[in-house]
Amino acid sequence: MGLQDEVKKRKTFAIISHPDAGKTTMTEKLLLFGNLIRTAGTVKAKKTGKYATSDWMEIEKQRGISVTSSVMNFEYKGHKVNILDTPGHEDFSEDTYRTLTAVDSVVMIIDATKGIEAQTIKLFKVCKMRGIPIFTFINKLDREGREPLELLDQIEDVLNIETYPMNWPVGMGKRFLGILDRYNDQFIKYNGNEDETYIPMSDMSEDELTEHPTYQETVDELALLNEAGDQFSLDRVLEGEQTPVFFGSALAPPFGVQTFFDTFISMAPAPGPRRTTQEVISPVYPDFSGFIFKIQANMNPQHRDRIAFLRVCSGKFERGMNVNVARTGKSIRLGQTQQFVASSRDTVEEAYAGGDIIGIYDPGIYRIGGDTLVESKQTFEFDELPQFPPEMFQRVTAKNVMKAKQFRKGIEQLVQEGAIQLFRGYPYDSMIIGAVGQLQYEVFQHRMKHEYNVEVLLESIGERIPRWLKKEQVDAKLFDERNLLVKDREGEFLVLFKNDFALRWFIDKHPKIDLIDLYEVN
Ligand code: GDP
User: Fold this and answer.
1) Strand segments (E) across 383-439
2) Binding site for GTP: residue ranges?
3) What value of ipTM does the predicted structure carry?
4) Strands 289-297 vs 242-247: parallel, antiparallel or unpaired
5) Does the beta carbon of 17 lie inside 6 Å of ligand 1?
6) φ and ψ at 306, to 5 degrees?
7) In angstroms, rounded to a whole number, what is the distance separating the alpha carbons of residues 244 and 481?
8) Pocket lining: 27 vs ligand 1, CB cutoff 6 Å
9) Which residues form a coiled coil (predicted)?
10) Which of 71, 92, 371, 521: disulfide with 340, CB 3.0–4.6 Å?
11) Does residue 78 come out as left (phi exceeding 0), alpha (psi in the -120 to 50 range) or beta?
């Protein structure tokens, strides 16, 4: 099979959701479709260890399949599916965001009983900002949830995105009768078991269900939606401007999951071209290239190895090939590589372009910020991965002042690697590290101690709201401990506002000062 055909087959995506919305349950169903596991059940055990706890590891533990699958891949109906794991917000780190740079689409799962939950909004917004096509699955229809229209409104409001319901639930919870599959023009009957009955809409007049008041109401509601709602547009979906919304239930007996997945697979984009410092590189470009989006230390406690995750962007990867790290020009032989498969941590001999993810052994030479690896005769680099504005901040000092040198070295390297972000107080110099999740601090402290032999003291200055300033508008006198003025690693000024109130008060007082929010969805 030619490179072009291989690329077209690929569907690389991440499932994003608030903890407990049903990501694990859904993943299990998809793995069943891919024949990677044979039985699905509820994964009840909750995270125990702090490091690298992924929901998948829970699945793996329970099902006895091997650990360390941050990426799962399987064949499904002629497609090659790659699912990338993104940890829930309790294990959040910038890695979660960086992973989003390596996928071609996302599946957003929302709990119908809860709607979009506050702590997860950022994650969803980042997808919208980056223009990643978002497919929405509203889960737990077997329970009494919020009104479907209310849920759609919320998605539109929060993400500033059009919604297009692909199906529409008839009742919910105990009154749940099934879904009107608007896109395929059929009714899918909920029988309370594994069987789903598919009835073409044209045959529905013969079904006694049509007499049911709930069914009638739903048909009327849908007629209204057809008139007043947005039109479906695959182009807009692929631009990230419209999200197809599927209703269903991922838990056994799953409902609406098969139709969702089949439709998703038929619509989700295959890998596309990517921008580089030289030209746009198409996935069918013959030379191998890829970028690193995540480095995981100590994934497996038995091997204290570090693994860099690389997304193949063009050409074909073959084991043992020589590539260059574009940033340093250093040549390296990719000998020890792994493709992450749920059933085993197989050594991968070759991986094709477009979305395939390989794990490569990292002797400490890669940077998470998006190091590019290219076939030797090439020198281009993919766009650097964006920095995501952190929200938690801590002042950091070395416990023992005699260790200042190692302290600086450790911080420098960990910042370079992208494990944490460093800010400098202004005008009084102090070191403040920012993170998007608590886990990053724990990893930071642990690595400083074990890799650089420095114990660090962290003093929290709490969750803050960062807003960037234009240089010409900076006036240090306006800021204090409450609204702290700092510089980022590019030397840009930003203010860490104590809270929403402090931010609003400042805007009121100084309307002429522009405050830039890097999370603004437009
Ligand atoms: P995650 O934290 O997003 O991975 O969520 P899980 O998949 O672990 O699910 C969280 C809880 O919700 C578990 O107890 C599941 O059994 C339950 N759950 C998941 N999907 C459904 C569903 O469709 N209906 C109902 N009633 N419960 C569900």
Assistant:
1) 392-398, 421-425, 431-435
2) 17-24, 85-89, 139-142
3) 0.99
4) unpaired
5) yes
6) -115, 135
7) 45
8) no
9) none
10) 71
11) left
- Residue of minimum CA distance from atom 24 in ligand 1: 140
* Cα–ligand 1 centroid distance for 22 (angstroms): 4
Measured in whole angstroms, the distance separating CA 87 from the mean position of its chain's CA atoms is: 8
Helices (H), 418-457: 438-452
Looking at the DSSP bridge assignments, the partners of residue 12 are 82
Q: Which of 161, 150, 178 is nearest to 106 (CA)?
A: 161
Centroid of ligand 1 to alpha carbon of 25 (angstroms): 6
d(CA 406, CA 479): 32
Both structure tokens of 303: 């091997």
The total number of residues shown for the chain amounts to 522
Contact 451, 295 (CB under 8 A): no
Q: Which residue is listed with tokens 């919305």?
A: 21
Query: Cα(458)–Cα(446) distance, rounded to whole angstroms?
Result: 12
* Token pair recorded at residue 206: 């013969």
- DSSP class per residue in 266-321: HHSPPP--B-BSSSPBPTT-SS-EEEEEEEEESSBTTB--EEEEEEEEES-EETT-
Tell me which residue has its CA closest to atom 17 in ligand 1.
Answer: 22
Query: Can you say which residues are annotated as belonging to the binding site?
Result: 17-24, 85-89, 139-142
- Judge whether 423 and 434 are in contact, CB under 8 Å: yes
pLDDT tens for the 522 residues of the chain, in order: 688 988 999 999 999 988 889 988 898 888 888 776 654 443 333 333 333 344 545 544 554 433 344 788 888 999 999 998 776 555 566 777 888 999 999 999 999 999 998 878 888 888 998 899 999 999 999 999 999 999 999 999 999 999 999 999 999 988 899 999 999 999 999 887 778 889 999 898 888 888 899 999 999 999 999 998 899 999 999 999 999 999 999 987 889 999 999 999 999 999 999 999 998 999 999 999 999 988 776 544 455 567 788 999 999 888 788 999 998 899 999 876 665 544 444 455 566 667 888 888 887 788 777 799 999 788 899 987 777 778 899 999 999 989 999 999 999 888 877 788 999 998 888 999 998 877 788 888 888 998 899 999 999 998 999 999 999 999 999 999 899 999 998 899 999 999 999 999 999 999 999 999 876 654
Q: What is the DSSP letter of 175?
A: G
Residue 418 tokens, joined: 């992208």
Cα–Cα distance for residue pair 403/487, rounded to 1 Å? 25
CA–CA distance from 133 to each of 126, 129, 243, 269 (Å)?
Answer: 12, 10, 7, 8
Q: Ligand 1 pocket test: which of 15, 23, 28, 42 has the largest number of ligand atoms within 8 Å of its C-beta? A: 42
Q: What is the CA(176)–ligand 1 centre distance, in A?
A: 18
**Beta carbons within 10 angstroms of residue 328's beta carbon:** 12
